[in-house]
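Pipeline run #58 for the internal structure catalog. This entry was flagged by the ingest filter as a single-chain record with no existing model, so it goes straight to prediction. Upstream metadata was stripped on purpose; only the residue string is passed forward. Reviewer on rotation: M.T. Logging verbosity set to normal.
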Amino acid sequence: MSEQNKAFTFLEKYLMGPMGKVASFRFVRAVMAAGMASIPFTIVGSMFLVLNVLPQTLTFLQGFFDNTFFRISDLYMLANKATMGILALYFNLVIGYEYTKIYAEEEGINVNPLNGALLSMFAFFMTIPELVAGNGKMSLIQKMNDTTHIIFGWEMGDSGVSRLGSSGIFTAIIVSVIAVQLYRLCAVLKSKFINF
């Protein structure tokens, strides 16, 4: 019993305490809110994926699925592609909204959470096209072959624009935080100049 108490004391002192402090940061709370908000979104999309791979697990269903569900799989898999294919955009919007809302409530700044979300989305869309620097200028990438489809910098994948999916979540988080901070800065400066 004392071993369990020692382990718990160790975890509380060196892990749970510092993690509790990290979890109280505004940025972390906004990311946690986006993660929580995306759960139903991803569950709905995943249900259709499970339906599509069910015959791989239960092989006796293969013939039935070949003659029924797989005939319309392109149709119902749109639900999977529409959810997983825009997961980064969803994260970006929710973080922008929640982060702005936290600042509005806790600091009393006159910022609108919807504006924070839309500014975050604008900033995210600016980071999606792929650029290359060369010969003293920036150019959008153009690359078309059997495996890569990049048109005017926009890379297309199985689910649509590739950076809107899960591969763009990190970028979506970073640009939403930057966009909200710039929005907050402008709101603070505006209030100081108006009161001046």
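catalog note: Residues 26-57 form the longest helix (32 residues).
catalog note: The chain has a mean pLDDT of 85.
status: ready for reviewer M.T.
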